[in-house]
């Protein structure tokens, strides 16, 4: 198909975004086994956990232990979510190639999620970004609620631009634009990207879709046509943010892979191994994962 990239970089955020909202405790040992399976799938990057306050995200309170125990596969980037200097210290101790800082384009979501107003967040993240870069790490800046906010509704492109601008100024290598509540449609994606393209190179932008309304694949298709080559996804469509009520899981890696393989776009990922890792975590969680591809495999 003309106008599409030949390669796409997929970041598997299942062990972080995928598990952070799960009520069922997945043991450290099972997390490590699962991440080791993911490491063998050929995925470019794995966000393996989150170094946030353990009371905010109890499901990932063993981040340090997980980071110390996983096998590191050559060629795979291992990253983790980091909210502040304390989180960065723990992450560096556990071992990371990449630090993902995060904030929101919406004031209310920022406050609920990280207990800070947007202007108060910048100095905290600027220090984290500087120290992570000094330690030789790749830094990604997540911007949440770039389309819609569960508290404030539609977010203006100018508000997203302003947060992206500040994060780039602070030194992030990539910006990951989050459809936190999974409500965007392709025209919103087109509008936002057109607003950002004059200021930020396309290859610095990552898109992070939740799939609440089933629009994520259509949105990814739009972004691909506009030259975006980096996406976040989770095995089986796990995920959600506890501070974004109503949000469903991320777009499923399995479904993105089905699309990209069908389009002839290279990812380096082995689909069978992705399915095996999906079945593994599905059994551990004891529930059917939302991805259509997992259901297909089960019934095949
Ligand atoms: P706070 O309470 O404002 O923190 O929380 P504080 O700096 O005032 O410190 C209070 C206490 O917490 C202190 O302990 C600190 O040491 C401790 P005390 O002295 O009282 O004993 N503390 C920590 N402990 C462990 N690890 C840390 C840490 N930081 C402080 N890192 C904070 C601020 C940001 C820490 C908190 O609000 C938090 O952890 N929030 C995280 C919420 C979260 O994880 N949300 C989900 C991830 S974001 C997401 O899913 C969206 C995304 O996927 C993109 C998208 O979909 O849009 C990325
Ligand atoms: Mg997310």
Automatic annotation (TrEMBL):
Listed InterPro entries: Aldolase_TIM, HMGL, PYR_CT
Q: Which domain of life is it from?
A: Bacteria
Biological processes, Gene Ontology terms: ketone body biosynthetic process; L-leucine catabolic process
Q: Name one GO molecular function term.
A: metal ion binding
Claim: Cell membrane is one of the keywords in the record:
no
Alphabetized SUPFAM superfamilies for the sequence: Aldolase
Q: Which PANTHER family match?
A: HYDROXYMETHYLGLUTARYL-COA LYASE
Could you identify this protein by its name?
Answer: Hydroxymethylglutaryl-CoA lyase YngG
User: What gene makes this protein?
Assistant: yngG_3
